[in-house]
Amino acid sequence: MRHDLVVVVGRDPRDVAVSMSHHRANLDGSVLARLLAVAGPTHEGPRPPRPSDPRLRVLEWIDQDLRETVRHLADAWSRRDDSQVVLLHYADLSRDLAGQMRLVAARLGVDVPESRWPELVRAATFGDMRQRAGQLAPDEGLGLFSDNGRFFRSGSSGQWRQLLTEADEAHYQRRLAALAPADLRQWLHHGGGA
Known about the structure:
This protein is mainly alpha-helical and 194 residues long. It contains twelve helices and two strands. It has helices at 13-26, 29-39, 54-64, 66-78, 90-95, 97-108, 117-123, 126-131, 133-136, 148-151, 166-179, 182-190, and strands at residues 6-10, 85-89. It has a two-stranded parallel sheet. It is globular, with a radius of gyration of 18 Å. The model has no long low-confidence stretch (mean pLDDT 89).
């Protein structure tokens, strides 16, 4: 088995913004405050409270956090032909979970008996993971989430369409165009199966 691979999963940044909005709303503020106090002060200082309106939270993410998300994914995108990088996309995982899992297993050098694949693929579905949220939510036993089940809230793509106006979408497209070349933008929005 290879231990030198970096696995990076990209997703449409607009859907990332919606998911982050829901994840942040699910954080237990007292646990988060305690963890941040242990980590020490940041050079930026505390952020103001997040807007209560989901659309405004997504727009705030686009203005404040899109740059770092694109920077991270652009680095992986630039190394997509590197044998040590496995670049996946949420849309491709959604379209062909079994195929993508087989790709990762092959790249890792993990030999999976054919009879085990159906069970493994089923265990990796969003619905199955949601049912096992108490075991699978990345909580580290800290009680960080108010509800571990809400960590696996939806799993669907395109929810940003319910929130963003045409003007919001134009604003997002301008921001993204300033951060990423056309081929990366295409991949970010559609994955490799588009």
